Amino acid sequence: MGNMQFSDVQIINLSLLITVRDSIKHDRVAACCKFGLCEAQARLLESLSIDQILILVANLGHECLFLPRQDMVSLLALPLPLAGAVMAVHPPHHAPYAPQPAAVQC
């Protein structure tokens, strides 16, 4: 890939894609729970090589694949000892449903 310069958003996408992929390879069920993935998403991410991830990140541009939780401000305002417990009982709100390609249907 040469001397590619990734933006901050691309570095986040790269880091998280590799982290999620490696987590799936280590323990698929735990990774799906931890990252809110369905089986089709897990299969797709697990199949990606590092080169494929680099190419994806380079071609996706500056759009973040992993957006912050909608309740991030209220969670960060909580007393620190409570933040983890509140996050555990209040899952993140997902973006409105958008149709996915047939290969990654959940």
Brief summary of the model shown:
The protein has helices at about 10-25, 30-35, 40-45, 50-60, 70-75, 80-90. The protein is mostly helical.
Q: Could you characterize what this model shows?
A:
- With 106 residues, this protein is mainly α.
- It has helices spanning 8-26, 28-35, 39-47, 50-60, 72-77, 80-89.
- The longest helix has 19 residues, at 8-26.
- 10% of the residues are buried.
Question: Which secondary structure elements does this structure contain, and how are they paired or packed?
Answer:
Elements: H1 8-26, H2 28-35, H3 39-47, H4 50-60, H5 72-77, H6 80-89
Which CATH top level class of the domain at 8-65 fits?
Mainly Alpha
Oligomer: single chain
Instruction: Find the CATH topology of the domain at 8-65.
Output: Flagellar transcriptional activator fold
CATH superfamily name of the domain at 8-65?
Flagellar transcriptional activator FlhD
Query: Which structural class is indicated by helix and strand composition?
Result: mainly alpha
List the total number of helices.
6
| Terminal-residue CA separation | 32 Å
Shape: globular
What would the keywords be for this entry?
106 residues; mainly alpha; globular; 59% helix; Flagellar transcriptional activator fold
